[in-house]
Amino acid sequence: MTEQRFKVGIVGLQPGRSWAARGHVPALRALPESFEIAGVANTSLESSQAAAAAMGLPKAYANVAEMVSAPEIDIVTVTVKVTHHLEIVKAAIEAGKHVYCEWPLGNGLAEAEKLAAVARAKGVLGVIGTQARVAPEIEYLKKLIADGFVGEVLSTTLIARGGGWGGVIPQKKDNAYLLDKAGGATMLTIPVGHTLAALTDVLGKFADVSSVLSTRRTTALVADTGETLPVSAPDQVLVSGVLTNGAPVSIHYRGGMARDGDGLLWEINGTKGDIRVSGPFGHAQLVPLSLKGARGDQKAFQTLEVPASYRTGFPVEVIPGNIARNYARMAKDLQEGTHTAPSFDDAVALHRVIAAVEEAAETERRTKLT
Asked: Residue 184, Cα to own-chain centre: how many angstroms?
């Protein structure tokens, strides 16, 4: 059977600096048998033309409306700020296009539920960019847990540094929006959200949560302008809860970077052994991860090498590699009718966990998830 090649239009491509340029373009070009980048739509035709010329793309669209109505476009990739997701994703779906949307799907649970419902009603595929779930280390970890490496999971603990909420941001233009919790792009929604997607994929769903969200740094220095800006997004995220299998969970994310480059430690404790997942900082979706394990009477943790088969066929670099794995699943689902890529319904489930964390922090009470 000949595989169909899907033509992709990207919304929000800035050569040299945007997430689409760093991740989506090389990911899609690594899968030429399934995808072709057909063009780009930015906030103006001039911006689209500059991006298309710089990235070697065939077409620049004047705006999103022109792109989503173009008959040659099969998939619309949305890589802009969260506050624009609802409008753009909804327009693409209503035009009958499949959508790959970066996480978070919406600015809060209500927007995510609305977009998932529209996608179901229209019969299009919505894929969410929670690519930590498909990282080779996470996929192998999931197999190790399923195969009983640690036995029955007793508990899990995760401590990580969240990066950009540490009191200094490099650029006002690209980073200031992260400081405002109303914008939907916070330490809770981005690094914690991506890592929660991986954690629940490996260990199962939450039954309930309690939490503390605290903004200990109320201002941030902008390195390129010298300005000081107010901060309303939390730089401390503490979550405790219980999974549906009864295992307790403890998570603490701190803003900023680790002093020694060791900024993520996730430990899974079981009746027969333990596994540790580590990385440079808490964005599990975009950093190299390593696995170590110990079983039985072993006193020292041993490196658990991920088999080469988990990486074959994808870019070596972490960011485009993980995004390409997500796109490969999307192609399979469109071609074969399977359900392997993280979907908009998966995004809603993750948004519900985050909403429960926010509610628990606000009410200072444990919140149950249904």
From this structure: 13
CA distances from 56 to 37, 94, 264, 301 (A): 10, 29, 37, 47
Determine if the pTM surpasses 0.85: yes
Q: How many CA atoms lie within 13 A of 146 on its CB side?
A: 9
Q: How far apart are CA 46 and CA 51, in angstroms?
A: 9
Strand partners, 278: 265, 290
Q: What is the C-alpha to C-alpha distance for residues 145 and 202, in angstroms, rounded to an integer?
A: 7
Q: If you write DSSP's letter for every residue of 130-161 in order, what string do you get?
A: -GGGGSHHHHHHHHHHHTTTTSSEEEEEEEEE
Domain parsing of the chain, residue ranges = 6-132+319-342, 133-308+351-363
Bridge partner residues of 168 (DSSP): 221
Q: Which of 198, 230, 207, 201 is nearest to 217 (CA)?
A: 230
pLDDT of 200 higher than 90: yes
Residue 285 CA to residue 250 CA, distance in Å, equals: 20
> What span, in angstroms and rounded, lies between the C-alpha atoms of 124 and 113?
15
pLDDT of residue 197: 98
Q: What is the number of helices (H) and of strands (E) in the chain?
A: 11, 18
Residue 38: phi and psi, rounded to 5, are -90, -25
HEC profile of 80-130: CCHHHHHHHHHHHHHCCCEEEEECCCCCCHHHHHHHHHHHHHHCCCEEEEC
Omega into 191 within 30° of 0, i.e. cis?
no
The CATH superfamily assigned to 133-308+351-363 is Dihydrodipicolinate Reductase; domain 2 (3.30.360.10)
Q: How many CB atoms lie within 10 A of CB 32?
A: 9
Mean of pLDDT over the chain:
97
Q: Is the pLDDT of residue 77 over 50?
A: yes
Task: For residue 82, give the amino acid letter.
Answer: V
In the CATH hierarchy, which fold is given to the domain comprising 6-132+319-342? Answer: Rossmann fold (3.40.50)
